[in-house]
Structures are given as C-alpha cells and as structure tokens.
Amino acid sequence: MMNTLIAGGAGFLGSHLTELLIAKGHNVVVVDNLSSGLMSNLESVKDKIGFIKADITADEISITGGLDLVVNMASRASRAEWEKYPVEVALSNSLGSSNLIKIALAKKARYIFASTSEVYGNPDVVPTPETYKGNLNHLGSRAPYDESKIFGETLTKAYEAEYGLESIIIRFFNTYGPRMRGGDMYGRVIDRFIKQAMANEPITVYGTGSQTRSFTYVSDTINAVMLLIEKGKPGEIYNIGTNKELSIVELAKTVIEVTGSKSEIVYSELPKDDPLRRGADNSKISALGWAPEIGVREGLAKMMESYRA
Ligand SMILES: NC(=O)c1ccc[n+]([C@@H]2O[C@H](COP(=O)([O-])OP(=O)(O)OC[C@H]3O[C@@H](n4cnc5c(N)ncnc54)[C@H](O)[C@@H]3O)[C@@H](O)[C@H]2O)c1
Question: Which CATH number applies to 3-175+215-240?
Fold first, then answer.
C-alpha cells in the first residue's frame, strides 16, 4: 500500500489515476486548485481520498504523515487555455514543479512529472523516441506550455543530480476519453469533432487536415502510468502513446462513420506553430509489457456513449 499525492487529481487524467490507485488499495491525497478540474470527476472516490484545494504555485501545502509517491499532473492542458492563461501555465510547470519536488524530497517520495509530446515541437523523426531533442519555437504561441514542460523536466533532472530526487518523467501523447472537458476553452479535437458530429453540424478541420496525431484511450494511458509506478526505472523518461499516426481528416471521417452523422467536413486556417506530425516511439514502455488495447473506433464509440449518457 502506497501513500500518494496526486497534484491535478481532479482533472481528466488525474481523476482516472486516482480511481485506479484507490481500486488497488493505495491511499490518495489530491491537491488541486480546480482551475480546469472538477470535483465531480472524483465523485466515485470522494469518501476514500483526502482533498486539498491549493494552487501548487502559490499555496503552502502541508501533508501530515508519510508519502511514497508524488505525481505532478497540475497544469492546464488545452491550447485555448495556454493562450488565455500563459503565465499561469508557465508557472504551474516551473514554480509549481519546484514546490512539489520539495515535498517529494522532504518525504523521501518518488516524483513523477506529467510532461508532454509537445516537448518534441515539430519533430522530423516520427515515431519520435525519447532521445529526440525537439524542434520548437520558444517564443511561439505554444511556448508557455511547451517550454515550461521542458523546464519542468530540466528541474526534475537538476534535483535528481543535486539532491538525489528519485523521479520518472512521462511524456503523454494525446489521450482522450470520458471526463475530457469540452467547449471553446477546454475542448480538444476529439471532443469537438464528436460533439459537432452528434449535432450533425459541420466538422471544422484546421489546415488541410493532413497533420497527424497519436491518440490513446484514457484507460490505456492510465494503465501505462500504473505500470510505470510499479515497474518504471527511476531516472528514466517514457513516452506514453501509440505509434499509429492518424491524420486529422481521417479522424474527422472516422468520427462521422462511428457516430452515423450527416456532418460535412469544412476547412479553416491552421493555427500558428501547429505540429505537423505526432507518433510515439513507445518501445521503452512496450518493453515493460504495455500495449494499448482500445483502438480509435472503439474509443470514439465509448466516448459517444458517455456523451449520450
Ligand atoms: N490529456 C492529454 O492528452 C495530455 C497530453 C500531454 C500531457 N498532459 C499532461 O497531463 C496532465 C493532466 O492533463 P489533463 O488532460 O488531465 O488536464 P486537466 O486540465 O483535465 O487536469 C489538470 C488538473 O490540474 C489542476 N491544476 C492546474 N493548474 C494547477 C495549479 N497551479 N495548482 C493546482 N492544480 C492545478 C486543474 O484544476 C486540473 O484538475 C497535465 O500536466 C498535462 O499537461 C495531458
């Protein structure tokens, strides 16, 4: 039984991880400022966890008792949010990371940092391995997110080198599934496409739609996180994502088929600095025994059902 702190545990990924940790008999304290997360995400476990409403960049976080693991998932994660709250996002992954690392060190706990495939920028090697150095615009519109995640990784490594922090860095590729928030502010591409398709409204594809992404269903992603908690090697960085690239226009067509929609596809301007390709070289996590189980069609159908419910 482990004592864990999940920062950002009221969010999409954090709440699914909290549920799995509780199901496996671990103790969980969630720290979250509810900026993009919702208490309702924790409804099924609310009587079994501790909850501290706090901002990891600004608030004193006092944990009584020991901790074995600190997971840092506390960052807004959609493009509209990075554009509207660039300072908040940049500080969450830098100053906030530092504050959480200090808690992990004080408690002699392992630290897991939720980084992102965005640290690769616009890669010229796809599927992209963890060793790829990145191709980014540090002053671009995505920079408050991308660069602060890179710094969050650097800081993790610095504390590891100087203070012996035991850490694992996870680079998540796009994950989708129930509890992914929607709407103009939080919505991510799959959420938008499914909602447009279910309403038989035009599906808006940016650019030509030939840009690719790697989509992993949330249960597969969270199983991978659990595997890393149990078997990940300290000091290592792991991609979590599929190596199957799907173009955005293919995604739109698949959503139309799965939902049985009459939507048409319409095209609009590609946002600045949008990466052209995403695909995970997942051989490192696969070597630990991970393989995604839910394909895109099945995952989209599950999401559609959750929206109907
Ligand atoms: N979902 C994905 O596809 C994906 C991909 C790459 C990386 N990630 C990373 O995984 C983590 C979780 O992402 P998510 O999709 O669950 O996003 P989310 O927005 O649903 O969850 C983030 C949670 O962190 C909380 N939070 C944000 N800033 C905070 C702060 N300063 N102090 C305390 N709490 C704060 C929010 O209220 C929310 O509950 C993030 O770090 C994100 O960057 C996610």
Answer: 3.40.50.720
